[in-house]
Amino acid sequence: MQWSKFKDKDLVLSLAHGIKQKAKKFDRLRIMHVCGTHENAIARYALRDLLPNNIKLLAGPGCPVCVTSSKDIDAIINYGIKNDCTILTFGDMLRVKGSAYSLLSASKLGLYVKMVYGLDEAIYYAKQAKKDAIFFSVGFETTAAPVASIIKSVNLPENLSFFSVHKYTPNGVLELLKAGKLNIDALILPGHASIVSGLAPYEKVASSFNLPCVAAGFEPVDVLGAILMIINQLEDNICKVENEYERLLNYEGNKLAQKALNDIFDITDSIWRGLGIIKNSGFEFKKTYNYLNAKLKFNIPFSDSYTEEQKGCRCAEVILGTIEPPQCPMYAKICNPHNPVGPCMVSDEGTCRNWWEVKGDI
Amino acid sequence: MTFDKITMDHGSGGKLTLELIENIFKANAGLDSAILGDIAFTTDSHSITPLFFRGGDIGKLSVSGTMNDLLCVGAKPMYLSSAFIMEEGFLISDLKKIVQSMLSEAKSANVEIVCGDTKVIESNKGFYVNTSAIGKIIRPIDGSKIKEGDKIIATGNIGEHGFAILNERENLQLTSHLASDCAELTGLILPIIESDLEIHWMRDPTRGGLAMCLNELCYKRDFGVEVFEELVPISQEVLSISEMLGIEPYYSANEGKMVIVVPPKDASKILDLLHKHPLGKNASLIGEITKDHPQKVLLNLSYGTKRLLSMPIVEKMPRIC
Ligand code: SF4
Ligand code: SF4
């Protein structure tokens, strides 16, 4: 089979060799990426096996499904059942448990959910449905931006509203660092999300926390290339934001997408699953769009008493890179992709799921 | 795993389908067709959205799938029955098209359609086709002779049907060239069955894709499977749609491919035979049987690293972002 040049074997092996040579100078390097698609590539190509033992490649809070709070899931389930409206959302979101039920399992309580591949399809369903429909709008800036521009450009059916749990990566990372929750030496920045946000928002991360930051694409050459760039920075004792993903990403980001986001959303505090409320890390509808905001339009009640995680699930630690999935006692024993106890086992971008699929029950 | 209700995943051809067959139907999930003395018998029901897709339609699919199931156990397809369950309001012109492609597929397999049945149900309840068929066993192939060191052959590029359907069904418009590989394989496989070359196992990697098929190959057996990424034939089209969706081609369905396990001595001769037929031009030796890790399918990546090709449990979803 013929792979793209970003999968090229010789290039990958020479990058791996370069990393091994240079890494000898360091006792231990903890490099974190914050993108589920990175974890997917790393697991799929078993890239960790190409790294020397003193380099730890950690998966951070990079999967939009994993960081969606159970409080938000509970709220939408309760609302949907009480008011008999249709909940539309992505497939992965259906299986994540709130404090008791996932959207999917809540269907036995009478919740009507419909899986969609995107907002376009949600609009299509809402048009056909007679009752109210709520789009459970999940994802980082990568998904928030297209949602914003669709909202700006099409006539939405009156019965469709949005429950935004969108999150903003740069601020999420920044706040976690401020709170001292991340014990890391460098960051690999998410290529896709950065195409929207640009790299400027990460300058503070690099300078205030002395972290080399390299934005990377999702092929093996990208990931290893980024690691090498990080090691080079550390070697030269500099900490700056660099771009490995120049073929698609520019420093400014996508101005149109940023404008769409700014037009529709305000940046607000947001709950991240297992991590609590993170300041300025979410996208919420601007006042002018209150009529689209399901939380206000329907006055969706949030319960104060909720358990953030399933008992015994250690997703929060997985998300923060403090443990690897097999260190969770449930991993592969009770928790697997069909019976995900925690969110990290649900989505293809989830860390536990990625480990399980390519390593099994080791 | 225990469930109180059927979920879509029970029908996705992955681990849950297998468990359903074993635990509820108490049937042997091992073979695609029953071997009854010197005849083979199989049945299959088909529901697919859309009914017409690039590369085929439900009619072609229903005949080819059933023919391929017979070939798997070493039989020459002979006679086919068909049954239709149709919703009220279904267009006669569409039905004609479907029947026409069933006929032409049957003709190409040299198979006679000998009986049928129709039922009409309420509107908006869908359109389904069942096909059953019998064939004459040329020589039974039941997997009992599989040995360590046996070679595994895939008869062509993998993943095309699943991605073509996803692309059309969800209107993803990701690629315009990708078509389903839906095809009956009598012309390709029968000469091999009729030859004196040894064949230890055959299976068409449909739902669940190549990954499921290989996992079934070593399911509850005392051997495992090694596959080499660089040897698995995959088209550029499939590679690029796979990248865009974040789903690997190994998990995408095929409807015109066969996975064949053969002893090393006959592997290259079988490959030669396959290469002679247009449907087998991309046939490739993709891996082998090993005793090293029973019941597991390992994928050897081109970088020298290894990983599991796990049995799919839930249907793969395109990533959110
Ligand atoms: S939004 Fe994009 S950058 Fe973020 S996790 Fe998903 S793929 Fe990665
Ligand atoms: S294995 Fe399951 S329970 Fe444990 S951390 Fe991962 S998702 Fe949570």
UniProtKB/TrEMBL annotation, chain A:
InterPro entries from the UniProt entry: Hyd_form_HypD (IPR002780), HypD_1 (IPR042243), HypD_2_sf (IPR042244)
Any Pfam family the entry gives: HypD
Record carries keyword Metal-binding: yes
Biological processes per GO annotation: protein maturation
Alphabetical keyword list: Iron, Metal-binding
GO molecular function, one term: 4 iron, 4 sulfur cluster binding
Family, similarity comment: Belongs to the HypD family.
NCBIfam families: hypD
PANTHER family: HYDROGENASE MATURATION FACTOR HYPD, HYDROGENASE PROTEIN ASSEMBLY PROTEIN HYPD
Name of the protein described by the UniProt record: [NiFe] hydrogenase metallocenter assembly protein HypD
Protein species of origin: Desulfurella amilsii
From TrEMBL, chain B:
Domain PurM-like N-terminal: 33-137
GO biological process: protein maturation
Coiled-coil ranges per UniProt: none
Domain of life from the UniProt record: Bacteria
Record domain PurM-like C-terminal: where: 147-296
UniProt cross-references to NCBIfam families, sorted A to Z: hypE
Similarity-based family: Belongs to the HypE family.
Annotated protein name in UniProt: [NiFe] hydrogenase metallocenter assembly protein HypE
Organism from which the protein derives: Desulfurella amilsii
